Amino acid sequence: SGSPLRSFSSQELRPKGLDVEQEELGDLVDKEMAATSAAVETAVARIEDMLSKSRAGDTGVKLEVNERILGSCTDLMQAIQVLVLASKDLQREIVESGRGAASPKEFYARNSRWTEGLISASKAVGWGATVMVDAADLVVQGKGKFEELMVCSHEIAASTAQLVAASKVKADKDSANLAKLRQASRGVNQATAGVVASTKSGKSQIEEKDSMDFSSMTLTQIKRQEMDSQVRVLELENQLQKERQKLGELRKKHYKLAGVAEGWDEDGKSLAPLSQEPATAQPPPAKLTAMAQPKP
Fold first, then answer.
1. Among candidate residues 200, 203, 196, 198, the one with its CA nearest the CA of residue 294
2. Which of 74, 87, 213, 269 sits at a 20 to 30 Å CA gap from 185?
3. Coiled-coil intervals in this record (predicted)?
Protein backbone atom coordinates (compact mmCIF):
# COMPACT_ATOMS: atom_id res chain seq x y z
CA SER A 1 0.00 0.00 0.00
CA GLY A 2 0.96 3.64 -0.19
CA SER A 3 -0.01 6.97 -1.60
CA PRO A 4 -1.64 6.71 -5.05
CA LEU A 5 -0.45 10.21 -5.84
CA ARG A 6 2.83 10.60 -7.67
CA SER A 7 4.54 13.12 -9.86
CA PHE A 8 2.85 13.05 -13.26
CA SER A 9 4.65 15.43 -15.58
CA SER A 10 3.32 17.25 -18.59
CA GLN A 11 5.60 15.08 -20.71
CA GLU A 12 3.83 11.94 -19.49
CA LEU A 13 0.43 13.43 -20.24
CA ARG A 14 1.66 14.76 -23.55
CA PRO A 15 0.28 12.69 -26.42
CA LYS A 16 2.55 10.71 -28.66
CA GLY A 17 1.21 12.63 -31.65
CA LEU A 18 4.55 14.19 -32.48
CA ASP A 19 6.17 10.77 -32.59
CA VAL A 20 3.82 9.32 -35.20
CA GLU A 21 2.75 10.16 -38.69
CA GLN A 22 0.03 12.79 -38.72
CA GLU A 23 -2.45 10.51 -40.45
CA GLU A 24 -2.38 8.37 -37.30
CA LEU A 25 -3.62 11.19 -35.07
CA GLY A 26 -7.25 10.42 -35.83
CA ASP A 27 -6.75 6.82 -34.76
CA LEU A 28 -5.06 8.02 -31.56
CA VAL A 29 -8.03 10.22 -30.67
CA ASP A 30 -10.42 7.27 -30.94
CA LYS A 31 -8.00 5.02 -29.06
CA GLU A 32 -7.50 7.42 -26.15
CA MET A 33 -11.21 8.21 -25.80
CA ALA A 34 -11.94 4.47 -25.73
CA ALA A 35 -9.20 3.97 -23.14
CA THR A 36 -10.67 6.75 -21.01
CA SER A 37 -14.12 5.15 -21.14
CA ALA A 38 -12.61 1.80 -20.19
CA ALA A 39 -10.70 3.35 -17.26
CA VAL A 40 -13.90 4.89 -15.92
CA GLU A 41 -15.84 1.62 -16.29
CA THR A 42 -13.06 -0.20 -14.43
CA ALA A 43 -13.19 2.44 -11.69
CA VAL A 44 -16.94 1.94 -11.28
CA ALA A 45 -16.47 -1.83 -10.94
CA ARG A 46 -13.70 -1.37 -8.37
CA ILE A 47 -15.87 0.97 -6.30
CA GLU A 48 -18.70 -1.57 -6.27
CA ASP A 49 -16.26 -4.25 -5.09
CA MET A 50 -14.92 -1.98 -2.32
CA LEU A 51 -18.46 -1.26 -1.17
CA SER A 52 -19.31 -4.96 -1.00
CA LYS A 53 -16.20 -5.69 1.07
CA SER A 54 -16.91 -2.81 3.44
CA ARG A 55 -20.50 -3.98 4.00
CA ALA A 56 -19.19 -7.45 4.77
CA GLY A 57 -16.49 -6.39 7.21
CA ASP A 58 -17.32 -2.95 8.64
CA THR A 59 -19.98 -1.70 11.01
CA GLY A 60 -21.13 1.51 12.68
CA VAL A 61 -19.44 4.80 11.84
CA LYS A 62 -16.81 3.14 9.65
CA LEU A 63 -19.43 1.53 7.40
CA GLU A 64 -21.50 4.71 7.27
CA VAL A 65 -18.48 6.78 6.21
CA ASN A 66 -17.36 4.26 3.59
CA GLU A 67 -20.82 4.00 2.05
CA ARG A 68 -21.11 7.76 1.78
CA ILE A 69 -17.65 8.27 0.28
CA LEU A 70 -17.92 5.38 -2.19
CA GLY A 71 -21.42 6.48 -3.20
CA SER A 72 -20.15 9.95 -4.05
CA CYS A 73 -17.23 8.42 -6.00
CA THR A 74 -19.70 6.35 -8.03
CA ASP A 75 -21.74 9.49 -8.80
CA LEU A 76 -18.57 11.19 -10.04
CA MET A 77 -17.60 8.29 -12.30
CA GLN A 78 -21.09 8.28 -13.82
CA ALA A 79 -20.86 12.04 -14.42
CA ILE A 80 -17.50 11.53 -16.18
CA GLN A 81 -19.04 8.85 -18.41
CA VAL A 82 -21.72 11.33 -19.50
CA LEU A 83 -19.06 13.96 -20.19
CA VAL A 84 -16.92 11.61 -22.30
CA LEU A 85 -19.92 10.66 -24.44
CA ALA A 86 -20.84 14.33 -24.91
CA SER A 87 -17.26 15.10 -25.89
CA LYS A 88 -17.29 12.34 -28.50
CA ASP A 89 -20.53 13.65 -30.00
CA LEU A 90 -19.15 17.19 -30.25
CA GLN A 91 -15.87 16.01 -31.78
CA ARG A 92 -17.80 14.03 -34.40
CA GLU A 93 -19.85 17.12 -35.24
CA ILE A 94 -16.73 19.29 -35.52
CA VAL A 95 -14.98 16.85 -37.83
CA GLU A 96 -18.03 16.33 -40.04
CA SER A 97 -18.76 20.05 -40.40
CA GLY A 98 -15.16 21.19 -40.87
CA ARG A 99 -13.45 18.62 -43.03
CA GLY A 100 -15.09 19.42 -46.38
CA ALA A 101 -13.85 16.91 -48.94
CA ALA A 102 -11.11 15.68 -46.63
CA SER A 103 -11.27 12.42 -44.72
CA PRO A 104 -11.55 12.50 -40.91
CA LYS A 105 -7.89 11.44 -40.65
CA GLU A 106 -6.86 14.31 -42.92
CA PHE A 107 -8.89 16.73 -40.82
CA TYR A 108 -7.16 15.56 -37.64
CA ALA A 109 -3.76 15.84 -39.32
CA ARG A 110 -4.47 19.31 -40.68
CA ASN A 111 -5.51 20.41 -37.19
CA SER A 112 -2.82 18.48 -35.33
CA ARG A 113 -2.45 20.83 -32.36
CA TRP A 114 -6.18 20.63 -31.63
CA THR A 115 -6.03 16.86 -32.06
CA GLU A 116 -3.08 16.55 -29.69
CA GLY A 117 -4.96 18.64 -27.13
CA LEU A 118 -7.89 16.20 -27.25
CA ILE A 119 -5.57 13.22 -26.79
CA SER A 120 -3.74 14.82 -23.87
CA ALA A 121 -6.98 15.84 -22.15
CA SER A 122 -8.53 12.40 -22.57
CA LYS A 123 -5.44 10.71 -21.10
CA ALA A 124 -5.59 13.07 -18.11
CA VAL A 125 -9.23 12.22 -17.39
CA GLY A 126 -8.61 8.47 -17.50
CA TRP A 127 -5.55 8.77 -15.31
CA GLY A 128 -7.42 10.94 -12.81
CA ALA A 129 -10.25 8.42 -12.48
CA THR A 130 -7.81 5.57 -11.84
CA VAL A 131 -5.79 7.48 -9.24
CA MET A 132 -8.90 8.67 -7.42
CA VAL A 133 -10.15 5.10 -7.01
CA ASP A 134 -6.70 4.08 -5.74
CA ALA A 135 -6.99 6.81 -3.11
CA ALA A 136 -10.53 5.77 -2.18
CA ASP A 137 -9.43 2.15 -1.81
CA LEU A 138 -6.76 3.11 0.73
CA VAL A 139 -9.14 5.39 2.63
CA VAL A 140 -11.84 2.74 3.09
CA GLN A 141 -9.16 0.29 4.27
CA GLY A 142 -8.03 2.82 6.86
CA LYS A 143 -4.57 3.02 5.25
CA GLY A 144 -4.91 6.22 3.22
CA LYS A 145 -5.34 9.93 3.78
CA PHE A 146 -8.68 11.63 3.32
CA GLU A 147 -6.82 14.66 1.98
CA GLU A 148 -5.41 12.65 -0.93
CA LEU A 149 -8.90 11.67 -2.01
CA MET A 150 -9.93 15.32 -1.98
CA VAL A 151 -6.89 16.32 -4.04
CA CYS A 152 -7.64 13.56 -6.54
CA SER A 153 -11.20 14.86 -6.85
CA HIS A 154 -9.96 18.36 -7.61
CA GLU A 155 -7.57 16.93 -10.20
CA ILE A 156 -10.43 15.16 -11.95
CA ALA A 157 -12.39 18.42 -12.15
CA ALA A 158 -9.34 20.13 -13.64
CA SER A 159 -8.79 17.31 -16.14
CA THR A 160 -12.41 17.32 -17.29
CA ALA A 161 -12.24 21.09 -17.67
CA GLN A 162 -9.22 20.51 -19.92
CA LEU A 163 -11.23 18.02 -21.99
CA VAL A 164 -14.12 20.49 -22.35
CA ALA A 165 -11.75 23.27 -23.38
CA ALA A 166 -10.06 21.02 -25.93
CA SER A 167 -13.37 19.79 -27.32
CA LYS A 168 -15.01 23.17 -27.76
CA VAL A 169 -12.11 25.07 -29.38
CA LYS A 170 -13.47 24.45 -32.88
CA ALA A 171 -17.16 24.09 -32.00
CA ASP A 172 -19.97 26.31 -33.23
CA LYS A 173 -21.04 28.42 -30.25
CA ASP A 174 -24.71 27.57 -30.95
CA SER A 175 -24.10 23.83 -31.18
CA ALA A 176 -26.57 21.68 -29.26
CA ASN A 177 -23.77 19.18 -28.63
CA LEU A 178 -21.65 21.96 -27.11
CA ALA A 179 -24.53 22.84 -24.79
CA LYS A 180 -24.75 19.17 -23.74
CA LEU A 181 -21.01 19.09 -23.10
CA ARG A 182 -21.19 22.17 -20.89
CA GLN A 183 -24.08 20.65 -18.95
CA ALA A 184 -22.09 17.44 -18.50
CA SER A 185 -19.15 19.49 -17.23
CA ARG A 186 -21.37 21.13 -14.62
CA GLY A 187 -22.48 17.65 -13.59
CA VAL A 188 -18.85 16.61 -13.06
CA ASN A 189 -18.16 19.69 -10.95
CA GLN A 190 -21.22 19.02 -8.78
CA ALA A 191 -20.22 15.38 -8.34
CA THR A 192 -16.66 16.40 -7.47
CA ALA A 193 -17.98 18.74 -4.81
CA GLY A 194 -20.00 15.80 -3.50
CA VAL A 195 -16.86 13.67 -3.13
CA VAL A 196 -15.06 16.46 -1.29
CA ALA A 197 -18.01 17.04 1.04
CA SER A 198 -18.48 13.35 1.86
CA THR A 199 -14.74 12.94 2.43
CA LYS A 200 -14.54 15.92 4.77
CA SER A 201 -17.56 14.70 6.70
CA GLY A 202 -16.16 11.18 6.94
CA LYS A 203 -12.76 12.42 8.12
CA SER A 204 -14.44 14.46 10.84
CA GLN A 205 -16.55 11.52 12.01
CA ILE A 206 -13.66 9.05 12.12
CA GLU A 207 -11.21 11.36 13.85
CA GLU A 208 -13.60 12.87 16.39
CA LYS A 209 -14.86 9.48 17.47
CA ASP A 210 -11.58 8.66 19.22
CA SER A 211 -9.79 11.96 19.78
CA MET A 212 -12.24 14.02 21.83
CA ASP A 213 -12.83 11.86 24.91
CA PHE A 214 -11.17 13.67 27.85
CA SER A 215 -13.45 12.32 30.55
CA SER A 216 -10.81 10.19 32.28
CA MET A 217 -8.04 12.83 32.35
CA THR A 218 -6.80 14.63 35.44
CA LEU A 219 -6.34 18.40 35.57
CA THR A 220 -2.57 18.01 35.13
CA GLN A 221 -3.01 15.71 32.13
CA ILE A 222 -5.44 18.10 30.48
CA LYS A 223 -3.08 21.04 31.03
CA ARG A 224 -0.22 19.06 29.48
CA GLN A 225 -2.32 18.13 26.45
CA GLU A 226 -3.48 21.71 26.06
CA MET A 227 0.13 22.93 25.88
CA ASP A 228 1.04 20.15 23.44
CA SER A 229 -1.92 21.10 21.27
CA GLN A 230 -0.87 24.78 21.21
CA VAL A 231 2.61 23.78 20.09
CA ARG A 232 1.16 21.54 17.37
CA VAL A 233 -1.08 24.33 16.08
CA LEU A 234 1.91 26.65 15.70
CA GLU A 235 3.90 23.94 13.92
CA LEU A 236 1.07 23.20 11.51
CA GLU A 237 0.47 26.88 10.73
CA ASN A 238 4.14 27.25 9.82
CA GLN A 239 4.09 24.10 7.70
CA LEU A 240 0.93 25.28 5.94
CA GLN A 241 2.49 28.59 4.99
CA LYS A 242 5.58 26.89 3.57
CA GLU A 243 3.52 24.29 1.68
CA ARG A 244 1.34 26.98 0.09
CA GLN A 245 4.46 28.76 -1.13
CA LYS A 246 5.76 25.50 -2.57
CA LEU A 247 2.42 24.81 -4.28
CA GLY A 248 2.46 28.25 -5.89
CA GLU A 249 5.94 27.69 -7.31
CA LEU A 250 5.01 24.20 -8.56
CA ARG A 251 1.97 25.58 -10.37
CA LYS A 252 4.05 28.30 -12.05
CA LYS A 253 6.52 25.66 -13.25
CA HIS A 254 3.66 23.37 -14.36
CA TYR A 255 2.08 26.08 -16.54
CA LYS A 256 5.45 26.96 -18.04
CA LEU A 257 6.43 23.36 -18.85
CA ALA A 258 2.96 22.47 -20.17
CA GLY A 259 2.95 25.52 -22.42
CA VAL A 260 6.41 24.89 -23.83
CA ALA A 261 5.60 21.21 -24.38
CA GLU A 262 2.62 22.22 -26.50
CA GLY A 263 4.61 24.81 -28.47
CA TRP A 264 3.37 27.95 -26.67
CA ASP A 265 5.27 30.55 -24.70
CA GLU A 266 4.09 31.93 -21.35
CA ASP A 267 1.99 34.60 -23.07
CA GLY A 268 0.08 32.01 -25.10
CA LYS A 269 1.91 32.82 -28.36
CA SER A 270 3.00 30.05 -30.69
CA LEU A 271 6.72 29.32 -30.52
CA ALA A 272 6.76 27.46 -33.84
CA PRO A 273 4.13 26.35 -36.36
CA LEU A 274 3.27 22.75 -35.51
CA SER A 275 0.51 22.33 -38.06
CA GLN A 276 -1.37 24.01 -40.85
CA GLU A 277 -3.73 25.68 -38.35
CA PRO A 278 -3.86 29.49 -38.44
CA ALA A 279 -1.59 31.28 -35.97
CA THR A 280 -4.65 32.63 -34.13
CA ALA A 281 -5.57 29.18 -32.77
CA GLN A 282 -6.49 29.15 -29.08
CA PRO A 283 -3.77 28.30 -26.55
CA PRO A 284 -3.72 24.63 -25.57
CA PRO A 285 -6.10 23.49 -22.86
CA ALA A 286 -3.19 22.23 -20.77
CA LYS A 287 -2.73 25.88 -19.72
CA LEU A 288 -6.17 25.69 -18.14
CA THR A 289 -5.80 22.38 -16.34
CA ALA A 290 -5.37 23.56 -12.77
CA MET A 291 -7.58 26.63 -13.15
CA ALA A 292 -10.92 24.91 -12.79
CA GLN A 293 -10.87 23.37 -9.37
CA PRO A 294 -14.36 23.22 -7.85
CA LYS A 295 -15.18 24.98 -4.65
CA PRO A 296 -15.45 22.49 -1.81
1. 196
2. 269
3. 224-253
